[in-house]
Amino acid sequence: MIRNLITGGAGFIGSHLAEHLLDNGEEVLVWDNLSTGRMSNLQRCVGRPGFRYIISDFTEDPSFPRMAEQVDVIFHLAAAVGVQLIVNDPVRTLETNILGTEVALRAAAKYGKRIFVASTSEVYGKGTRIPFSEDDDVLYGPTTKRRWNYAISKAVDEFLLLAYAESHGLPGVVGRLFNTVGPRQVPHYGMVIPRFIEQARTGAEMTVYGDGTQRRCFGHVRDVVPAIHKLVHCDDAIGHVVNLGSNQEITILELAIKIRDRLQSDSEIRFVPYEIAYRPGFEDMERRVPDLTKAERLIAYRPSRTLDIALDDILADGAAAPGAVMGNSR
Question: What is the mean pLDDT of the chain?
Fold first, then answer.
């Protein structure tokens, strides 16, 4: 039986991955400090055979290397995420992302474990060549703008994994995730779909940052998670960076209208300049579209769930209020 360790496993994506692995008959150890993750995300995992969790900061826990030695695969998802958090707490963003990845990679390399490192479409920065391909050049704004610290920190994460793969033979792969969405994602930290849903449900103004013409692609977590699982076990993917997500675009204004119509809400849409929503000088990208050719070639990845399906699943899941769960912690 394959044994897995998921850092950040109580988060939105991590909890879906934990369920997927358990459903596949594998063992799962979730490691999370609950800084942004929630125990309620794991309510479908707690009590199942082969599931355990540890609540601590794995970067400071001396038992982490020993536990890493006992598993077969490490999924490193722990990170500082969300534009709001990135802008408001740049030190946490940089330290969490870079130090966390370094600790995870060092343990994986020491014991020769397969490892998946989650990266982000933010790595493409201000690139304008559409769709974004894994070998494209990247372009960032000045280091004086906090906007780019997350993108650069995740680029450093990628460099670290690729260096370990080349220098130490580490069987690792990077997945660049493009706006993964689905049930359990919360509106905190700048996540746009749950924020729009919360605003529309309560009749509050739906705040569209900028002019709403920026275009994004939203990948369903239930398409992305099986792809992550396949990717870490794909020998041809070792030492590579691979885009994962959807390539179907929608403008943020169209997204707000779609959600408002779905909920039959009377909420008004209000445009908020970036400098008010975040801080003066904030920069954003007009489009982010992944080239999925590499993922299709390596693991036959073809996302099948549309944005409408994702919204249906999010709205259906949102009817249940999250509750506390107890179980077999360390």
Answer: 92
